[in-house]
What does this fold into?
Amino acid sequence: MKTAHDLVTLAKSCIKEVRLADAAQAIQNADILLDVREADEYASGHIPGAIHMSRGMLEFKLSSNPELTARDLKIVLYCKTSGRAALASKALQEMGYQHVQSISGGFDAWVEAGNPVAKPEAVEFE
It folds into this structure.
């Protein structure tokens, strides 16, 4: 029986992971940057310009949004440490998306390297 770690290792063997050092350029060249973490993770901070689309609903949301169905979209995605993003990348490849990359090390590596983080603006009550 395979474990989650086994599935991630298998996914990483057949997807394209972009090195953290090359992530900013990959993001700049992408049509869309997807954060596949959970909503609370995204809300606590995310890569600037990222759109939240949790791993659990990814395939459904992409399929139902006409702007995101073109299989030649350049997609970069990430999660916390790169496991969910690897699984998501593999799923998108299986759906026919041709230009999918995940960020090696994920959001944790992005933050550790001192890259910018966006946070939703706090709502102040008077």
About this structure: The chain has six helices and five strands. Strands lie at 16-18, 32-35, 51-52, 74-78, 99-103. The mean pLDDT is 93. The radius of gyration is 15 Å.
